[in-house]
UniProtKB/TrEMBL annotation:
The keyword Manganese is assigned to this record: yes
Cofactor annotation: Mg(2+); Mn(2+)
Pfam families referenced in this protein's UniProt entry, alphabetically: PP2C
Keywords, in A-Z order: Hydrolase, Magnesium, Manganese, Metal-binding, Protein phosphatase
Highest rank taxon of the organism: Eukaryota
EC number annotated for this UniProt entry: 3.1.3.16
Domain PPM-type phosphatase: 40-171
Gene Ontology terms for molecular function: metal ion binding; protein serine/threonine phosphatase activity
Keyword Glycosyltransferase applies: no
Record-given protein name: protein-serine/threonine phosphatase
Species assigned in the record: Glycine soja (Wild soybean)
Length: 171
């Protein structure tokens, strides 16, 4: 038992220990270990009693890998969106296909590795502007049926923080 305890302590502390007297002696100094969780998600679509599927969704479990080195987000960073279409699928599909453009390219979305109140306010302001851009683009795009609309629910994860936003478009 003593030998097993020694092996566990060595593995946990990554230290070379020379014959400790007992398992109760702390063999390693206090360390701060930086733990970065890995986010994984799944999704399922169910049309239910409806005749046509009008809904879309987006899942980005690692936002940095989707955007490349354009932005320096805290780890973990993720984005999720559910677009509940009505009056046809066009508006929900349009937002899903153009999400990167509206939410990152067309607004001044600042990326940083530090999350503080200023960053969170900038994210909120950027998202408000992005949803207004989406409304304007949908209203002006002749390829989108004018009777189509969508409700959008987005969730952003930045480090320890999560921001949830909703918006509604009807044309």
């Amino acid at each position: 038992m003593r030998h097993h305890c020694l092996q566990v302590l060595r593995a946990l502390c990554h230290l070379r220990i020379a014959q400790p007297r007992s398992c109760h002696e702390p063999p390693c100094p206090h360390r701060i270990v930086k733990f970065i969780p890995y986010i994984r998600s799944g999704s399922f679509d169910d049309i239910g009693p409806e005749r046509y599927m009008e809904d879309e969704h987006i899942r980005m479990d690692d936002l940095s890998s989707h955007l490349g080195s354009i932005y320096n987000f805290p780890k973990p960073s993720a984005f999720y969106g559910v677009f509940d279409g009505h009056g046809g699928p066009e508006a929900a599909t349009y937002i899903r296909k153009n999400m990167i453009k509206f939410f990152f390219e067309d607004v001044n979305f600042l990326g940083t590795s530090e999350v503080d109140n200023i960053f969170l306010e900038e994210v909120e302001d950027s998202l408000r502007k992005a949803f207004l851009l989406v409304d304007s683009a949908l209203a002006n795009d002749r390829g989108v049926n004018s009777s189509s609309g969508t409700m959008a629910l987005t969730a952003w994860i930045f480090g320890r923080y999560i921001q949830i936003h909703t918006s509604h478009s009807w044309f």
